[in-house]
Amino acid sequence: MLTASSTPVDQVAIPRSGSRTTAGETLAFVARTTALAGVALVVLVLLLVATGHDPAVALTALVRGAFGSWYAITSATLVRAVPLALAGLAVAIAFRAGILNIGAEGQLLMGAAIAAAVASVVGSLPAPIAIVCILLAGAAAGGAWASIAALLRQRFGVLEVISTIMLNFLAQYLIGWLVRGPLQEPTRINPQSKSLPDALHLPVLLEGTRLHVGVLLAIALAIGAWWWLKETAGGFRLRAVGANAAAAATTGQIRVGRTVVLAFVASGALAGLAGSVEFTGVTYALYDNFSPGYGFTAIAVALLARLNPIGVLATALLFGALEAGANAMQRDAGVPSVVVSVVEATLILSVVAAERWQSRSVARAESGT
Amino acid sequence: MVLPAPANRIVNTPAAEDAILSLQGITRRFGSVLALDEASLVIRPGTVHALLGENGAGKTTLMRVAFGLLKPDAGTIRLRGAIRTIPSPAVALALGIGMVHQHFTLVPAMTVAENVALGRHGRYNPRAASARVRDVASRAGLSLDPDALVSTLPVGAQQRCEIVKALARDVQLLVLDEPTAVLAPSEAAELLRWIRRFADAGNAIVLITHKLRDALAIADDVTVLRRGRTVLAIRASSTNESGLANAMLGNEMTAAAGVASVIASDEVALVTATTGAPVLVADAIHVADPRGVERVRGATLRVHAGEIVGIAAVEGEGQHELLRVLAGRCEPTSGSLQRPDVVGFVPEDRHHEALLLESSLVENIALRGAGARRGRMPWSALRDTTASIVRDYNVLTSGVQSPVRALSGGNQQKLVMGRELIDAPAALVVVNPSRGLDFRATAAVRDSLRSARLAGAAVVVYSSDLDEVLLLADRIYAMHDGVLTETPNDRESVGRAMLGGSSPSGA
């Protein structure tokens, strides 16, 4: 039974990007993104003024924190962009298949948790193999976590929006227990896991910075996902199911349920990988609040990129810069970093509104019979 | 600006003061599309008024203006002589104007009485609501159970529910949008009789239709729209089918071959093809719908290469489940079935089941067979295939990479037809091939069905328009309550068999 067709995915305003991008479309995309960024900037300035901060000082701090130095670019902005890009890819793949996976955060956390667990037992392996094992374990964990929501949707018609949000909480509390129980560091003082031995760290890409090879992994996976969606039969099936599940089943004779489950698991695996990359590349330990909401910001990253994997790289960079700048703004100008969260939310709402407005004007022109 | 051709006369226009409703100079744009271009319409009390036109001519748009669903950009609306603005359907109803849309606007999970009471204010009293519906229905001579759930009602009863909904608001002018499209012949005849009675009581009916025969049979006045303009307003008694067709299409087009065949449908003689071996053979098959309800109960049929077999049925007799099984889109629960591996399928709902509207033409062509494809997508070959379909089936498009949403309904259907015939499948199952299409597109789609048959395909056609089945089919099976009966190819026998009567040839 095709329960997929009964879920109200197509009633939700998901921006859908086409498979082709002509020069004109790219131009329009850039123009619109610039306009949206302009809106976000105006909102930010208004907020700063309203909260009694000097916009010039605050914005300078923000820009300097994100791009002010080589170290800021590589170790603040890019390092934050990596998990955002991987989790953004996860969301983009799911949304392209018509799956509203809001659970990238939970899948990312589970990826990090299992990575930490595996890290504690693979110490005897040669380092490169151990690192690969840890990364893959994280991906597998994220996929497995997503498969719970996938099966609930296929078997019982449970809306994945609900189930993935619930699974986010579960993952968060599970980590809280793990770092106070089975995975707690040997001294049993701090609620965190044992630090990852230096040998198992992801190699640093540029000497003197915190930038690790995860950035290459994110770029490779983005290009791979883009190519796969565009050029392969499997990628086309995924897009067809997302565009119109009923037509995919009836005309394409595509097994919609199978496609949905596979896409959901792949999405979870990417988010899980984001977790294990963050663990081996940045934090080297598991603890409460391991992720500053990367899995949620990833939704904005994917939407702003109009679900295009290559676009995800660009928007992940933008949001990475915003987060890095927000920290600097808080430190140097005393502006609470939540102001930047408001800007991020403004960006998302503007994207969705622009998308709705566009599709509404198209629909209106068509209903004129 | 093009003046109406000489044959199109605007005559017998009553003075606006006598009219129950008079629309003058109504203009309405949608973006760059001019949907109504100074259209006019004058409805006399006590009459049935047919509003004719091709798809996209602006019939429904004009009546949506009168019903307060659309604001005109220009023009005046007079109701019994007084100029009015109608900003919303609530105001239209208060002024005595009702409308029954082509796609019903009922809440399936509610009862008839609840649906009728929707939109009223104050407390809801179930008993009073039921009594009111019973009263309105009986005075109108419409049989309707106020306490039945709408979802359990057949289409004809749902339509009566829509009508009663309007009558309960004491409307004197009722707009019916393509009301006979969903009905069996006997139900349609009953509805047309009711329409006559309602008008004779001093009310007025606007019948939006593209069926010339219905228009001439029942209407007192006829108004024809073409490209948003009123090109003919005339007494029905002083015109005929070809006069109306000329007005609808413009003189130059009726001369085109194919169009004539659609208009004078009954006179078309089918070229007899040589019938070959059986391709689709079903023997006592049973089919359940997704909820597990058995919808096909022992259907037996045989479709040979080179013939078109028509299925005739009113809504909900199990035809959709049967057609999906014949098309290889689902499996029977029991019975034996012989079916080729690949069956072309044109499903009922193009937008829902046949097309990815936001995707390009090429991707829509690629959709066929996507379930079994492995490896890379052969985009370059698919582009060539798409281009050849666009050429062979005369699909009007700005390019194979433009989104399907940008195509008109007729061009979308031509694309679907071309796609399903691309690899000359041994069998083709087509549902409502011309629904929502204009004359030219209808002719093109029917021609491609006939060519598929000549090329040796076994074709199954179901249409909710019985005339279309009669026109296209070499043989007809009527379907009633999940069972098929082969029926002589004439309107009367088919109509009887559709409603479960025995066919005279069976005796």
Task: Lay out the secondary structure.
The complex is a heterodimer of chains A (369) and B (507).
Chain A: H1 23-50, H2 55-67, H3 70-96, H4 104-119, H5 127-156, H6 160-178, H7 214-231, H8 233-243, H9 245-250, H10 256-283, H11 294-304, H12 309-333, H13 338-366
Helix pairs in contact in A: 1-13, 2-3, 2-12, 3-7, 3-10, 3-11, 3-12, 4-5, 4-6, 4-10, 4-11, 5-6, 5-10, 7-8, 7-12, 8-10, 11-12, 11-13, 12-13
Chain B: E1 21-30, E2 33-43, E3 48-52, H1 59-66, E4 74-79, E5 82-84, H2 89-94, E6 97-100, H3 112-117, H4 126-140, H5 155-167, E7 173-177, H6 185-200, E8 204-209, H7 212-218, E9 221-226, E10 229-235, H8 241-249, H9 251-254, H10 259-263, E11 278-288, E12 294-304, E13 307-312, H11 319-326, E14 334-338, E15 343-346, H12 350-354, H13 361-367, H14 379-392, H15 409-420, E16 427-431, H16 439-454, E17 458-462, H17 466-472, E18 475-480, E19 483-487, H18 491-498
Parallel strand pairs in B: 3-8, 3-9, 6-7, 7-8, 13-17, 13-18, 15-16, 16-17
Antiparallel strand pairs in B: 1-2, 1-4, 4-5, 9-10, 11-12, 11-14, 18-19
Helix pairs in contact in B: 13-14, 14-15, 15-16
Distance between the termini of chain B: 61 Å
The greatest interface here is: A-B, 36 and 43 residues
Predict the CATH topology of chain A.
Answer: ABC transporter involved in vitamin B12 uptake, BtuC
- Low-pLDDT runs of 5+ residues of chain A are 1-20
Decide which structural class fits the backbone of chain B: alpha/beta
Number of extended strands of chain A: 0
CATH architecture of chain A: Orthogonal Bundle
CATH topology of the largest domain in chain B: Rossmann fold
| Structure classification of chain A | mainly alpha
How many beta-strand elements of chain B?
19
Query: How large is the radius of gyration of chain B?
Result: 24 Å
Give the helix level of chain A as a range of percent.
Answer: over 70%
Q: Assembly type of the shown chains?
A: heterodimer
Mean pLDDT of chain B: 85
CATH class of the largest domain in chain B: Alpha Beta
Number of domains of chain B: 3
Overall structural domain count of chain A? 1
Give the % helix of chain B.
25-40%
Q: Proportion of β residues of chain A?
A: under 5%
Summarize the main sheet of chain B: 6 strands, mixed
